[in-house]
Amino acid sequence: MLNIALIIAFALMTIAQLLNLYRLFKGPSLPDRILALDTMYINALALFVLLGIFFDTTIYFEAALLIAVMGFISTVATSKYLMRGDIVE
Amino acid sequence: MNLALIPLLPLLTAFIPSLFRNRNLNAITAAAIAGTSMLLLLSQAPAVFNGQIPLSSWSWIPAIDLNLSFRVSGFGFMFAFLILGIGLLIVLYARYYIAEQDPMGRFYTYLLLFMGSMLGIVLSENLILLMMFWELTSISSFLLIGFWNYRSDAREGARMALVITGGGGLAMIAGFILLGNIVGSFELTTILAAKETVHAHHLYPLTLILILLGAFTKSAQFPFQFWLPHAMAAPTPVSAYLHSATMVKAGVFLLALLFPVLSGSALWFFIVTPIGLITLMFAAYMAMFKDDLKGLLAYSTVSHLGLITLLLGLGSPLAAFTAVFHILNHATFKAGLFMLAGIIDHETGTRDMKRLSGLWQYMPITGTLTMLGCAAMAGVPLFNGFLSKEMFLAETLGPNLFGSLSWIVPLGATLAAIFAVAYSIRMVHDVFFKEPAANLPKKPHEPPHGMRLPAEILMALCVLVGLFPMTMAAPMVNVAAGSILGAATPDYHIAIWHGLNMALALSVIALIGGSVFYLQRLRLFDSHLWCSRYCDGKMTFEAIVSGLVHGGRKTTRLMENGSLQRYIALLIGAVVVLGASPFIGSDAPFIGPLALSGVDPVTLIMGLVLIFSTVATAIHHRNRIVAIIMLGTVGLIVSLAFIRFSAPDLALTQISVEVVTIILLMMALHLLPRTTPAESSRGRRWRDIILSVAAGGGCTALMMGVLTRPYDTIAGYFLENSKPGGGGTNVVNVILVDFRGFDTLGEITVLVIAGLAIYALLHNFELKAPQTDALGHPWTEDRFPMILAQITRPLMPLALLFAVYIFLRGHNEPGGGFIAGLIVASVLILQYIANGIVWTRPRLNVDNHIIMAWGLVIAVLTGVGSWIVGYPFLTSSFTYLQWPLVGKFEVASAIAFDLGVFLAVVGSVMLVLVKLGSINSVDAQRVSTSVQKEKKDKEGAH
Amino acid sequence: MNHLIVAPLLLPLLMGAIIVIGVNRSITLHRTLGLISSALITLITAVLLYQAINGPIQMYVLGDWNPPFGIIMVLDRLSAMMIFITSLLAFLCLLYAIKGTDEQGKNFHALFQFQLLGINGAFLTGDIFNLFVFFEVMLLSSYGLVLHGGGARRTKAGMHYVMLNLVGSSIFLVGVGVLYGLLGSLNMADMAVRLAHAPAENAALLQAGGLILFGVFALKAALLPLYFWLPNAYGFTSAPVAALFAVMTKVGVYVILRVYTLIFGDHAGVAANVLAPWLLPIALVTLVAGSIGVVASRDLRRTIAYMVVVSVGTLLAVIGTFTADAIAAAIVYLPHTTFMTAAMFLIADMLRQQRLDSGSELTPDRPVGQERVLGLLFLGAAVAIAGLPPLSGFTAKLMMLMGVQSHAAAPWIWSLILLGGLVGLIALGRAGSVIFWKTVPLDDTGLEAFSKKPHANIPRFGSACLVPVLMLLAISPLLVLFGGPLSDFGYAVAAQVSQPVHYIEAVLGSDAVAALLSAGGR
Amino acid sequence: MPGNRWILHPLMTIALIILWLLLNNSLSFGHLMLGILLGIAIPWFTNRFWPERPRICKRRKFIRFFFVTFLYDVIVANINVVRLILQPDIGKLQPKFIRIPLDTDDPLVISILANVISMTPGTVSSEITDDNKTLIVHGLNVPDEQAAIDEIKARYEAALKEIFTC
Amino acid sequence: MIIIEILVSFFLVLGAFFALAGSIGLFRLRDFFARLHGPTKATTLGVGSLAIASAIYFTFHKEGISLHEVLITLFLFITAPVSAHFLAKAARHQRLHESKKHPES
Amino acid sequence: MELLFSTCLGVMISCGVYLMLRGRTFPVILGLTLLGYAVNMFLFVSGRLQTNLPAVIAPDRLQYTDPLPQALVLTAIVIGFAMVAFVVVLALRASGELGSDHVDGRKENKS
Ligand code: NA
Ligand code: NA
Hints:
The complex is a heterohexamer. In chain B, α10 (about 205-220) runs antiparallel to α13 (about 245-260) and α34 (about 785-810) runs antiparallel to α35 (about 815-840). In chain B, about 70% of the residues lie in helices and about 5% in strands. By secondary structure, chain B is mostly helical. In chain B, strands 1-2 form a two-stranded antiparallel ribbon. Chain B has a two-stranded antiparallel sheet with strand order 3-4. Chain E is an all-alpha fold. In chain E, α1 (about 1-30) packs antiparallel against α2 and α2 (about 30-60) packs antiparallel against α3 (about 70-95). Chains in contact: A-B, A-E, A-F, B-C, B-D, B-E, B-F, C-F, D-E. Chains B and D meet through α34 of B and α1, α2 and α4 of D.
């Protein structure tokens, strides 16, 4: 049963990633693309968690946490690039 | 020992004359040095005249059979005597000739260098050693000919001489090595005795040709004759020395020296004889039409060298004997004549025979001397020139290998003799007789006696030898020829009168014909006009050289068009070719035995996502920010792949590096054009696509080949020893900080270097940032949005905690100093983004240089620590401490090393990003400098 | 274990770091530290060279993890010679650099130390991936040094150099990936043993791996068609850096010699002598192309840069015969060409400064300021480089000609090497006569031009600048004077290099050698 | 909770200790010690970056707000949003920017308010005017603008103001 | 034990569903500001519930409680709105709202 | 799996190379970064593709992936990062010095 749930979850997350990818390519605006990338980060994080359960290991936890941190930073930086151009000023 | 000194003394002490300002001191020191060498030489005379060959030898570089060994053969002795004797006269002559403003000391230095090298050539026992001196004469003559370097003709003459003779020398190197290998020794004594071996060897022709190339270029034989007349741009003393007794004679010396081993074959005859004959005639012909005194003498010299070559080519013992004799005679009268030409030039200010005339009444003594010299040159009886020339004519009549065409030789010889008489008469009559010349640059008068003395001595010798050959010359000639011909030496009686014979007839014909030619010279001049344009090889030479240069420039421009795109394409292409080459014609199966593992849908789709976003990066590369975002996606999926395939550490590193990279790229993009113009031509684009597909496909193929093959790896060792030996369960990290800690040390060094280099690049460098964004909107006023500031500040401690966590667990779980460092760095960067440099920089009041440097120091010292316990660098040690309550926990030196890594990462990343951030904002730079100033003040305080 | 072996790495590393810590201190401090370090390294490498000449091959096991598992440094005669050459050259270049060059930009001395670390590391390491790491250390600091001082031409040339080498680094990793994926080891000696046992069906892949690596090394060594970055990079960078870089291309040469005798040597079974068919022809073509560049270039510094290419072509052509005698000759030629080109770069720099506006371009200009001294230096360097007696170029060239004569391609090598010499003669003769003789004005009725005194405001060079150059030049006569011992050393090196079993035995012990021989290697 | 010269930032220290234990998934004494150590040490480093002390005056209200109101709203919000997203005809949506006049000028309060708004029903705070007087919020579906404004001000701003002002 | 499994499965599917919903919003909605809502809320909550699932799972499948997944959720709840705010700000800077029908009172 | 991985890698390398052959510094840098990712993956899989066998010693596990390539890739990633950082800054410097972001400093748009 857990496996079925996992498979479903994987399936849904993969579809989600594809939808993000669509938005990433389609745009049309830059904020759209950035938003898509940010969402991909968070979904990747979700995939890490799923993998952790699937493989029955906690070894991917830090990766998940780190990806959250880095996703945030990159989104912030990119948005600031759009608003100010100058990221570190 | 003193053998070696004869050449080495002038070489090693050459610098002395140029130490003095006083011109007399210059001359005296030079004379003293040459004189000493002369004495050393004469001390060998007894032995030599007893027919011995004094030898002395020291081993030097066995690998190239180079020995410091010298010999004084009779022939060598004669040459050395000429070199030193005439050299001494030249020293005296030059003292008067060289003008005030010319650096006389330097002149004598060059002269001594040249003298030493010449002596070396004629006294060497070892071929390689001889080769060294040979090339040395090329260098020193280059300096001598170019002495008046402010004159372009001097420069060109010098360079031409250098290239021709030096180039010939290169050919001769090859020839000598071959000769030495054929014989099995480079010592002349052995070589000269090995005629049969050499002639029998299949490389004999090649060897001969290469060596002759060297000799002919040096002795200005046709078709290399042209450099010599242009060497006349040298000061007359130089010409008198180089072109009478020394440099140009080196070639014929070598021919005579190797005569015993190389001569006596048809090949020798058919190369040497014609060359000599052509040179003899051609140069004599040219000499008649030279208006320049020195030009006339130069061509006459070439022609006489041709004569000697021809004699050696004929190959009979007597011919060789005659050659030796003529070498001696020619040296004497030609040196004198050059000096006289120099005197005339010096006292009248010109050497042009069109302007000179009727000098007799001003300088009768010089005139008399010139007449004597020219008589010798023309081969008038009672002068030394006559003796050898008549013997020569006699030799030409002898049978030779031309068979039915044998008559060509005497005919050519006689013609040349006729020309010689003609130009000799001209030199006397045009200059000293006819109506006195008007408008000469100077008022002509006799030179100071010291300047005339050398010429007087030489002319006296010409006459004396002419009158009493058997007493004056025969002994020396016999010894010299004897050392060449050995047993074959003819017991020849040199005499003025041999009775009425063909040779005498030819001499007479020459004298009469020459006079006739001279009288008819005006007609001849007209007929000669065509030649004056074409007969000078200089044009050809320069055409060749400049052709070489321009061809070179074209080729270079063709290859190196300065386009990086082409260079990268070449690199990729070259590697593709190299990598593909082994598979061409290899029948082994490409895919290995291992079965492929199955694909699950999630991975498959993620793979597709990776491919799509990669391609998107390439497609969107013109719209740069979009490309960056796509690149970010690629990086994200790559880290996913690392997780998928059991590499959590890689995923952690990849994701953090990737984000920092993206920030870096955007910071740069802000100061660069936002878009890339479409500028690649269609063809170029296709070329690139093909190339990149080849590269990518190649890598795919390689990887398939590798992945489908089994391999046994050293990995097992790491897995076993990680815990017991390295004290950590995360094998990857243990490899990094322990098994291969040295790599990691290098890796953080690279980071530090990057920091340094980037800082240096950005130092005192400013770029203007655009005022509006891509859509043309002005930038938002709100530089540091409140919300971000409010969130990031409390975020900082949390992130530090996380970093500590990642750092500490690194040894046993995924993580470690590097990732911790990147986390801290990116959180600090977040501070900068949220609050700006002006707010943040002073709050981290320590120079990032110093942080990263300390990282390195700590890492190194950790490694050095293991020396104390007697282990090699970087040997790790760890132990488990049992603490009350806390329990058992591990202390490993690797942690200290990892701390170094951590600091290096934080320091370098911060250094780069902050410096990069502040290059376009003045206040930011002000802050960072003020921070440094603060520190300086602090240091100043205590 | 002989800790001295890692001293040439740790000393510059530590000193570099210390200099960085003192980043805000005076340049004098940086200079002192840099000089002390370089001098010490030179002494240490001299000692190591002495040990290597008289002793067996030594190994330093880093982290006490025995090969093939840990990283090792190996000191044989070849590596010892290379690190000594490097250190000595670096010391002399630094002596020249502290006369102002180092102030043209930031962080010169730290970068210089790290440069030293990288080069020495590349020479000493016995591990293919560690070699990559040291390549990167070497390259990145060289990037910094090449661009030191800035300026448009220099930046552009530097950028080409950087980007090409970045591509090269990626290719290196691909090559290592292939080899590790099939052999499962990184220690070069161990790779050799495993390669000897490699099955036939892996032959093509293994050869591909080896040849891909050659692509990278060829870029470093500057072989055709991968040397195009060099003339500008060396011609436009600051003189001491260019002089130091005379040894950088030799790193490529060294690595080629090392990898393709040790790993892909005769004993390498399915991948034996994989480079043999490629190296000689490529090197000869490089020699020709370089010579063409030499005659073609209008700028003295570029002329010298092309001479670097020529010397690489010569070296690798000779090495390309893969015979002991030839390798010995190459070993004799290597220090000569390195030091002499370096000296010439420095001389060209002094000339550039003392001429009015044409700098090092070969166009007539005012008379050189210190015409006597510089003329003498130039003559010396030119004679040496053109391979004329009595300097080292002549003896080295002779030894190479004699070393390759047994090889089938000897006629080609001979004629091309000799022609290369002729070209050098032509180019340097022209250069010298233009710079020292053909001074303004251009009209040939020269007396009044000659009597013209050089203009004022010419920088004059004190002994501080001249001494390092003199010391560099002084090496040449020494190489001739002690040509006997030198050539013996050359043969000794060749004996080790052409018989890699010694190396393998020193690293992995005699069992490994036995295993190697059992695989049918010799 | 005022800091003293050892414990600069009591709240932060406590938070750090808890986080440390969470990270390590352990309550061992060793980790507790380490956590306390870090909890005290880290604020020393970060003090210069976070000099302000958030004053949570009404703790009980604070707890109630975040762990009852907020959590509840988040869940509701998500269900709403998902419903809106998944509804077949998205044309019926009435997205709108609404300007909310702010009664506080405390940056912390404003920030928290903005975030809370973003996480709760159909609204994303998208800009704070430069004078910090108005918060511009994007509503995914705003049939009645005034109602939305009133609810936000009453339900969140007031509460937050109360919590963070003594 | 079965309850645990049910619980885990529930949270897994729920979380994945929410995450997907967020992406659907990103995929489907008409203009940027509308799209912003999905990922900000749904995805965050979705990942949150996945984290809960993981926490429960590891608490009962490995020895000892495992709560560190909570950290992820916490972090996302703090940062997601900020990201959203920033993106919206950027979008407004790009005048995306002016092109669309966005009445501003 | 191997085929999928190799294909992805081939595509990455192709795109990287293509970008590196462009005439402006920025695409070249993008290409270098991309190539860097690809090459790292190449080095990584030289230890073969393993699912859920991380090289972290655990008492109950017998199989592990080959940790060595992972360590190498970590080093390579860091070095690659340093290089990209440097070349990015160099591109800035060049555009400042040469007044153009063309790799050859050319002003006019032709190739
Ligand atoms: Na900035
Ligand atoms: Na190089």
